[in-house]
Amino acid sequence: MKKTSYVLAAMLTMGTFAFTACSDRTQNNAEQTAESAGDDMERNMETAEATWETEREETRREITETRTEIDREIEEADREIERASANEKARWRDRKRALEDERKELDRSLDRLEKETKETWQDFKQGVDNTITEIRKEINNTDND
What we know:
Strand content: under 5%
Oligomer: single chain
Number of helices: 3
Structural class: mainly alpha
């Protein structure tokens, strides 16, 4: 009977030791996994921040380039106004006013660019992209007339 008690006691001790060792290993694995997940999340946030900044710079560049195109078109309208007939002058003046309005809209977008947050960025960017597409389409259509 004593021998059985010793065997049971030894088995219980070994079982406890094995359980504790497994628990420590499991806890260490869990801690490492949590730390790794935290590192991944931090890298993802840094990547998202860099992407947002890159998109802001690209949008700023697109607005500036489009504004330059509009300025060239306004200069062209001014030249056409000088040499056009009376009927044509009215059309070119209308064209110039429309271009100036578009330039003002781009200026407002450029001002808003600095105030946009990550949460509102996609809607803002889509709006600017649509505006630039429409402006360029109009410029190209007018150039082809």
